[in-house]
Structure formats: structure tokens, C-alpha cells
Automatic annotation (TrEMBL):
Name under which the protein is recorded: Sulfite oxidase
Gene3D superfamilies reported in the protein's UniProt record: 2.60.40.650, Oxidoreductase, molybdopterin-binding domain
Sequence segments annotated as region (Disordered): 1-29
This enzyme's EC code(s): 1.8.3.1
Organism: Panicum virgatum
Catalytic EC class: oxidoreductase
Gene Ontology CC entries for this record: mitochondrion
Entry's Gene Ontology BP terms: sulfur compound metabolic process
Length: 398
């Protein structure tokens, strides 16, 4: 295993330091998300407030001089690449949102119980990732741009981590993407060694991780050990027996994993972050703010806000970068990143405020969680609702 030096019991040491405001959803393995207001406070999510998603103990790779990633499989090679080799390739900075497929799982579980880490609405974050494009790396082993299949039959690229997951019986986390996506420079798939202009931290994949924009975060594998060209999709647990979307009729007694493809793109999504699920406010103007995003590089065409439980609607203001108007698909907009929104609602009494987004392909969030319920609790993208209780003696939220 090309992993440099792993330190501590069984190759792991103590947990890295974390921001005290994070909401811890699981301690072993460590999974945590920021508070809603912290998440929506900035377009670029601060590293310490970026959600933490792990399936096993967090490895320590501290001997960078001996670290390398092996690139091979059904192509040329294998070839060992050090971090210096990867840094010599052209560097790209890509602003992209990573979202856990289980984001908003807690809300889905209220309809009917699901299995998985109980996330609120903050199992995502937006960062600027720096690194080499995977398409450039694959050229080093003889795979040209825009290759759908290699002469030896390779059609997928599998990322293999150095970590150890119980679901893999102590083996490494692994996931794959289509070769055509991996070899397309415009897909912006990165081997990233920086996050927000700084060296990756352990929680986020130090020293090297994959960033696959526009798809669920489970495919952006951390702590890379190998990159293999393979004939079929990865046969790892998290591709074949997890992160698949089943209809509400399927339960743990009748599930057949092979009947569904591994989930890749995520649907259009939005959530209100300026308010909790049930909040007490003073009658008057209230700020309703949050995020919206869609998979596959699709932009956000609208964010609709209802001040009265869906009876009437108006459009929220959308933005990414200060001073630059957001236009879906425009060169000035970040195609892989979320869009923040803000609206003012005049609250006269108790009410329910609803947010729903529409992407550039006219996909709309579904109204209810019941229609998209699934036993793993993934891709909860129903309208996001918060209840407001109007109390005259409170300070305004403006």
C-alpha cells in the first residue's frame, strides 16, 4: 500500500482539532456539521466549519517524502506519482460544493425511520479546491482526453483510499466514476491538495483527495492510495450496497441492491439556514436566507419563498460573489457551486415559511418527503419548511 507512514494504534492517532460549534452526529467514526447560521454566513465555507464525513478512523499520512499514489489498471502503467509529480502538472482552482447524499436525513426519518447518520441541513459546504485535473494525470499513463473506453476495455476510474472501513471488513473506501467524465477536462475532476488556498487538513483528505464536482460527496474519495482504470463500476460496498435511490415501497426485507445504479448527480436542493425548524420571532420583517444547488453543473434559475405554507410565492434574491450578478450558466458564475439566497418576509402571526428551488433544466424540488422516502434516507430534496411562532415581546430578526 502506497501510503507513506501511518502513525498511532493500528495506523491511526488521536483525532484532529475541530471547531467547538460543530454539531457532532457521530463520534466514531467522526461525523459533524456546522450550525445553520454559520453555514450560510459565507459563500466560501471556512475550512473549520466544513462538514466532516467519515466511514472509519482518520488516517495520518505524515511522511510526504515517501507518499505516492499508484495510477494503473486497464491502461498504461502502473505508474507511481509522488505529490511533487502531481504538483508539477498545471494547477487549477475549482470552486465546488460537496454535499453528503444523506443531507437532511433527520427530516426524512420523521416521516418513517431510515438508517444512517442523522444529518440536519448542513451536511455540505462550498470550497475552492486546488490541484491537478484528473484528465491530465491520466494522460501520464497513456489515456487521452475524452476517452470513453481504453483499448483493453477500461470504462471506469476507481479511487481507492488508505483508510479502513467496517463496511469493507477493514478494507479501504473506494468509489468510481465513468472514464469519459474522468478524461473530460471540462468536468473539472481534480486530484486536490489544497482547500481554500491552504494545504488540505486531515479531516478533508490530506495529502491528496479526489474532487468530483456535481455528484454526491461519496464519490470524492479522500486520502488517495490508488487510481485504477477498471472495466465495470467499482464493486466496493459504497458503490454497490449503499448510496442508491430506492422507491418508498422498498424496505430492508425486500431490497435487491443490484436493481439500482449507484447514485451520481444529486437533484436540485435548497434549505433555509437563517431559521431553525421551529422559531419564535417578533411580528414584522424576518430575513429568510439559505442555499440552493443542483447536480451536474446545472445552475439555479429561481428560489421561491412562500410566507404562508405554500399558498402564495415570491422570488428570493440569488447571489454567489459580492458585486457580481448571479446568472445560471454565465462565465462569471461558478457552475459547480451553490447559490445563496435571501428574502424578507413580513410575519404577522404564526406561519410556516417554505423554500423551493428550480434549476436551469426546470427541475423543481418535490413538495413532500413521502414521495421520495427511501430506506437509506438519501437525497431528501423536498420543500424546506420552518415554522415561526410570532411573539410580540421578542426582538426582531432583522
Amino acid at each position: 500500500m502506497a501510503q507513506g507512514a501511518l502513525r498511532g494504534p493500528s495506523g491511526y492517532s488521536r483525532e484532529p482539532p475541530r471547531h467547538p460549534s460543530l454539531r457532532i452526529n457521530a463520534k466514531e467514526p467522526f461525523n459533524a456539521e456546522p450550525a445553520r447560521r454559520d453555514l450560510a454566513a459565507a459563500y466560501i465555507t471556512p475550512i473549520d466549519l466544513f462538514f466532516k464525513r467519515n466511514h472509519g478512523p482518520i488516517p495520518v499520512l505524515d511522511d510526504i517524502d515517501s507518499y505516492y499514489v499508484t495510477v494503473g489498471g486497464l491502461a498504461g502503467g502502473p505508474r507511481r506519482l509522488s505529490l511533487d509529480d502531481i504538483r508539477k502538472l498545471p494547477k487549477y482552482n475549482v470552486t465546488a460544493t460537496l454535499q453528503c447524499a444523506g443531507n437532511r436525513r433527520t427530516e426524512m426519518s420523521k416521516s418513517r425511520k431510515v438508517r444512517g447518520v442523522g444529518w440536519d441541513v448542513c451536511a455540505l459546504g462550498n470550497a475552492t479546491w486546488g490541484g491537478a485535473k484528473l484528465s491530465d494525470v491520466l494522460q501520464l499513463v497513456g489515456v487521452p482526453y475524452h476517452t470513453e473506453i481504453t483499448p483493453s476495455g477500461g470504462k471506469h476510474v476507481e479511487f481507492v483510499s488508505v483508510d479502513q472501513c467496517p463496511e469493507e471488513k477493514g478494507g479501504p473506501y473506494k468509489a468510481s466514476i465513468p472514464l469519459g467524465q474522468a478524461t473530460n477536462p471540462a468536468a473539472d475532476v481534480l486530484l486536490a491538495y489544497e482547500m481554500n488556498g491552504k494545504v488540505l487538513k486531515r479531516d478533508h483528505g490530506y495529502p491528496l483527495r479526489a474532487i468530483v464536482p456535481g455528484v454526491i460527496g461519496a464519490r470524492s474519495v479522500k486520502w488517495l492510495d490508488r487510481i485504477d482504470i477498471i472495466e465495470e463500476e467499482s464493486q466496493g460496498f459504497f458503490m454497490q450496497k449503499d448510496y442508491k435511490m430506492f422507491p418508498p415501497s422498498v424496505d430492508w426485507d425486500n431490497i435487491v441492491w443490484s436493481t439500482r445504479k449507484p447514485q451520481m448527480d444529486y437533484p436540485v436542493q435548497s434549505a433555509i439556514c437563517s431559521l431553525e425548524d421551529v422559531g419564535t420571532v417578533k411580528p414584522g420583517q424576518v430575513i429568510v436566507a439559505g442555499y440552493a444547488l443542483s447536480g451536474g453543473g446545472r445552475g439555479i434559475e429561481r428560489v421561491d419563498i412562500s410566507p404562508d405554507c405554500g399558498k402564495s410565492w415570491f422570488e428570493a434574491h440569488r447571489y454567489q460573489k459580492q458585486g457580481i450578478p448571479y446568472v445560471a450558466g454565465n462565465i462569471t458564475s461558478d457552475k459547480w457551486a451553490w447559490v445563496l439566497f435571501e428574502a424578507i418576509v413580513d410575519v404577522k402571526g404564526d406561519t410556516e415559511i417554505v423554500a423551493k428551488a428550480v434549476d436551469s433544466s426546470a427541475n423543481v424540488q418535490p413538495e413532500s418527503v413521502e414521495s421520495i422516502w427511501n430506506l437509506r434516507g438519501i437525497l431528501n430534496t423536498c420543500w424546506h419548511r420552518v415554522r415561526l411562532l410570532a411573539t410580540p415581546n421578542l426582538r426582531s430578526f432583522m
